[in-house]
Write a structure and sequence with these properties.
This protein is an all-alpha fold. It has two domains: about 150 residues, no CATH class; about 90 residues, no CATH class. It is built from 13 helices and two strands. Helix 3 packs across helix 10. It is elongated.
């Protein structure tokens, strides 16, 4: 099997659905041409044509995007993918965290340093503000001094959260097992949001088409029909393992 570079793709829906979200972004190991080919294969399949009005109402581009992300995910390690997206290594993030902590301490020292006249920097801002403006500047000066006083706290909070960069739940979610299931969860929740039901059987039919596409296009093992119970089982298991993430995914659909 030839190795293919993972890329980010977009494609548009033939018949605009006013309920769909604009400009869907797909991250999958499929090339742009392969993604379009998958869409064509799915849309001419009996599993799709039998329920064409239903799937069109859900949004063909969203359906294909989630199918591709679930069935043909990227295989690079999570750390490599994060580094590629941010342009920063874990060591560079840790260095930034230390610099922010040191900067917070320095700003706090300057804010509270007693200047000649026994006033601090932020006290001067509160007291004098912009004298050319006059009294109308008081509220703005008080707010500015407050932001400067809070800045060290914000920097320390940011620095503390960089310890878990980019987010502990995100890292847990993006394990191979969780992330691929999450894409299926997103697909099923999208269908439910559009129709009021999960329609596991219809989604299973499309996953079977994807398996057949993988067999003929990439010489993967012989495709086996994907059963309705398989889809339901994956969604139920994900919900049990990741209740808070499931809840947020459902809310954000």
């Amino acid at each position: 099997m030839n190795k293919r570079r993972s890329v980010t793709k977009t494609f548009t829906l033939d018949s605009p659905n006013p309920l769909r979200r604009p400009l869907l972004m797909s991250v999958t190991r499929l090339s742009k041409a392969e993604l379009i080919q998958l869409k064509q294969v799915v849309e001419v399949s009996p599993a799709y044509k039998m329920h064409k009005a239903f799937f069109d109402r859900c949004g063909a581009d969203m359906i294909i995007t989630r199918l591709a992300e679930y069935r043909f995910p990227q295989r690079a390690s999570l750390e490599d993918r994060i580094q590629k997206a941010t342009g920063k290594t874990r060591k560079q993030i840790e260095s930034l965290r230390r610099r922010l902590t040191a900067l917070a301490e320095e700003i706090e020292r300057l804010n509270n340093l007693e200047l000649p006249g026994r006033m601090s920097f932020t006290e001067l801002i509160r007291t004098f503000g912009d004298l050319e403006v006059g009294a109308s500047d008081i509220e703005e000066s008080m707010a500015l001094a407050y932001r400067f006083d809070c800045l060290p706290t914000f920097l320390r909070e940011y620095s503390e959260n960089l310890k878990r960069w980019p987010h502990s739940s995100y890292r847990r979610l993006l394990s191979d097992r969780n992330w691929e299931s999450f894409r299926l969860v997103q697909l099923c929740l999208w269908v439910k949001a559009m129709t009021g039901e999960f329609h596991y059987a219809k989604i299973a039919g499309l996953l079977t088409v994807c398996a057949e596409f993988a067999e003929t296009r990439f010489e993967e093992p012989e495709a086996q029909p994907v059963l309705e119970d398989h889809v339901r089982h994956n969604i139920t298991n994900f919900k049990v393992r990741n209740p808070s993430i499931y809840e947020r995914a459902e809310y954000l659909v």
